[in-house]
């Protein structure tokens, strides 16, 4: 029987963890997390790390295995995830991967795109521009140079903006040009399962999750990492808004409303990313476990 990686994708707060656990238990297998912010042990509440009860129901990999101070790239994740998969496939015909970080999912399922080498001075100039003119300047430049990628990227993430801009400026071609390269073959089959729901319901679930995070102690978690706010790992929705509140530049009420708004925008970008993937098995968020398993087994047998 062919080895199969089942990748569960979808917008934040849609129920990916629960679905992954359901499938992991049915296939008696383990789960690889491809959520790029759940890697960090200092960020638990704000990244919706699976609960102890959820983690006890199926073994997870790549959950809080790094510190926010560690240098850890999507390339590192690709390499390590493939190594873990090789070991897991020795004893399992099926492994589950779950997460809403599209780039990290693609790294495992397709391999990373190859980009030209860029003069380091280009990045230095962009970092200087960010410091002097703010993130809006980078947003305007990328939207002009590569509108296709601008529509997909987290445009509140300066690291991503700078990476795309340095390729545009250094190569003379749009960043998205290099995203269409031939993908790497994998030694296992891949089934992508996407979870859907009406947009109002997704937004309602996001708002409810944010309220629960605050009730569970998100503000205290953010206070603990405030001294390290310049680290890339912390340039994340839920943290950067509360940093402004702790700075005294916004009210708590406004910060919470910004978290909800920015999370909704992030969910919209996630769906744009995942909707472009062909051969995805789309299922409703409230599908029964029985029907889910039948649909998945029909695709992999």
TrEMBL record:
<comment type="subunit">
    <text>Monomer.</text>
</comment>
<dbReference type="Pfam" id="PF01715">
    <property type="entry name" value="IPPT"/>
</dbReference>
<comment type="function">
    <text>Catalyzes the transfer of a dimethylallyl group onto the adenine at position 37 in tRNAs that read codons beginning with uridine, leading to the formation of N6-(dimethylallyl)adenosine (i(6)A).</text>
</comment>
<dbReference type="GO" id="GO:0052381">
    <property type="term" value="F:tRNA dimethylallyltransferase activity"/>
</dbReference>
<keyword id="KW-0819">tRNA processing</keyword>
<feature type="binding site">
    <location>
        <begin position="10"/>
        <end position="17"/>
    </location>
    <ligand>
        <name>ATP</name>
    </ligand>
</feature>
<keyword id="KW-0067">ATP-binding</keyword>
<comment type="similarity">
    <text>Belongs to the IPP transferase family.</text>
</comment>
<dbReference type="GO" id="GO:0006400">
    <property type="term" value="P:tRNA modification"/>
</dbReference>
<dbReference type="GO" id="GO:0005524">
    <property type="term" value="F:ATP binding"/>
</dbReference>
<keyword id="KW-0547">Nucleotide-binding</keyword>
<dbReference type="InterPro" id="IPR018022">
    <property type="entry name" value="IPT"/>
</dbReference>
<feature type="site" description="Interaction with substrate tRNA">
    <location>
        <position position="101"/>
    </location>
</feature>
<keyword id="KW-0460">Magnesium</keyword>
<keyword id="KW-0808">Transferase</keyword>
<protein>
    <recommendedName>
        <fullName>tRNA dimethylallyltransferase</fullName>
        <ecNumber>2.5.1.75</ecNumber>
    </recommendedName>
</protein>
<feature type="binding site">
    <location>
        <begin position="12"/>
        <end position="17"/>
    </location>
    <ligand>
        <name>substrate</name>
    </ligand>
</feature>
<feature type="region of interest" description="Interaction with substrate tRNA">
    <location>
        <begin position="35"/>
        <end position="38"/>
    </location>
</feature>
<dbReference type="InterPro" id="IPR027417">
    <property type="entry name" value="P-loop_NTPase"/>
</dbReference>
<feature type="site" description="Interaction with substrate tRNA">
    <location>
        <position position="123"/>
    </location>
</feature>
<dbReference type="InterPro" id="IPR039657">
    <property type="entry name" value="Dimethylallyltransferase"/>
</dbReference>
């Amino acid at each position: 029987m062919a080895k199969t990686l089942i990748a569960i994708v979808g917008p934040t707060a849609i129920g990916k963890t629960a679905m992954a656990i359901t499938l992991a238990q049915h296939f008696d297998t383990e789960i690889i997390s491809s959520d790029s912010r759940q890697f960090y042990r200092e960020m638990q509440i704000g990244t919706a790390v699976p609960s102890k009860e959820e983690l006890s129901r199926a073994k997870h990999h790549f959950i809080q295995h790094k510190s926010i101070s560690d240098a850890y790239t999507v390339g590192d994740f690709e390499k390590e995830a493939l190594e873990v998969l090789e070991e897991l496939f020795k004893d399992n015909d099926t492994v589950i991967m779950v997460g809403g970080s599209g780039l990290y999912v693609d790294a495992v399922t397709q391999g990373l795109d190859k980009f030209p080498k860029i003069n380091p001075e280009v990045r230095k100039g962009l970092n200087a521009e960010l410091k002097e003119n703010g993130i809006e300047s980078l947003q305007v430049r990328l939207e002009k140079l590569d509108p296709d990628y601008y529509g997909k990227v987290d445009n509140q993430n300066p690291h991503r903006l700078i990476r795309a801009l340095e390729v545009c400026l250094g190569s003379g071609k749009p960043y998205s040009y290099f995203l269409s390269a031939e993908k790497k073959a994998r030694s296992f089959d891949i089934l992508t399962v996407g979870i859907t729901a009406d947009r109002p319901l997704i937004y309602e679930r996001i708002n409810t999750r944010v309220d629960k995070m605050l009730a569970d102690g998100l503000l205290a978690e953010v206070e603990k990492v405030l001294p390290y706010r310049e680290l890339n790992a912390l340039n994340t929705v839920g943290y950067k808004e509360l940093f402004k509140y702790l700075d005294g530049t916004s009210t708590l009420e406004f910060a919470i409303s910004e978290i909800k708004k920015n999370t909704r925008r992030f969910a919209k970008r996630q769906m744009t990313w995942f909707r472009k993937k062909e051969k995805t098995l789309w299922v409703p968020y409230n599908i029964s476990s029985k029907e889910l398993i039948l649909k998945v087994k029909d695709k992999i047998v």
